Amino acid sequence: MTLLHAIALGLIQGLGEFLPISSSGHLVIAPWLFNFPDPGLAFDVALHFGTLIAVVLYFWRDFLEIIGATFFKNTKYKIVDTKYSSSLFWLLAIATIPGAIFGYFLEDYAETTFRNPLLIAGTLSIIGLILYLADKYAAHKRNLNEITKKDATLIGLSQAFAIIPGVSRAGSTITAGLFLGLDRVSAARFSFLLSAPIIFGATLVKIKYIFSAGTMEIVAIITAALSGYFAISWMLKFIERVSYKVFFWYRLVLAIFIVAAWFMK
């Protein structure tokens, strides 16, 4: 592992975690394309820890408001004024459960069977198309405080499929949110808020590997945190003005490139 590899993989993780393009798919494809070895489990945990830092730094006030709205709204110990409903905390908890269960039981497949480049090309293109259709044809009229338990369950189930590289955790949850009628920004915000518990859980399970982190892992953590913070900020501003269509085209072009590279290797 070189410094350039550490920075490149940190950028891939930070940008790919919050843009609907699949960080896991890119992290499989990059070593395969450029012929450098798998960086190992400690490095993988470091990358996830970096994106956890990003989402906490960007949404720390939002998380404080959500906790306040849930546990302190009707008490004299109000933490802070909030724009969130008192149910959002529990909705995020509901949406986290399917991803945690699927991740636990399918982790071995995610690290072996699911890492086939042709499979990733297929999931990149198919999920990209579904995202495009949801963005173009669904009614985007509901906001974050109108999410129901049914919505949270369905978004959580969609997140479970992100264990397959190329699907994208952000892509699957945003797509589900759009199909359920959320506006573009609300679908993204719920997806980003939902990323915190699932990334935290994935990091906590393998936290012991963080303690063996060396210089390259620390570089990757910092790079993933900075690029992840930028990705969240840019994404929320971009989709407020434009749409998700650009991500469909990116995924499709990348899928075609992967298939071409597969037959050329």
Instruction: Tell me roughly what share of residues is in helical segments.
Output: over 70%
Q: Tell me the total number of β-strands.
A: 0
Catalogue the unreliable spans.
none
Principal-axes shape call: globular
What is the string of SSEs from the N terminus onward?
HHHHHHHHHH
Domain tally: 1
Give the radius of gyration.
Answer: 18 Å
What is the end-to-end distance? 23 Å
Mean pLDDT: 90
Chart the SSEs and their pairings.
Layout: H1 3-18, H2 23-34, H3 41-71, H4 88-110, H5 117-137, H6 149-160, H7 169-179, H8 184-205, H9 215-241, H10 245-264
Helix pairs in contact: 1-2, 1-3, 1-9, 3-8, 3-9, 4-6, 4-8, 5-7, 5-10, 6-7, 7-8, 8-9
Label this structure with key terms.
74% helix; mainly alpha; 265 residues
Overview of this structure, please?
The protein has 265 residues and is mostly helical. The chain has one domain. 74% of the residues lie in helices and 0% in strands. It contains ten helices and no strands.
Describe what is shown at a glance:
With 265 residues, the protein is mostly helical. It has 10 helices and no strands.
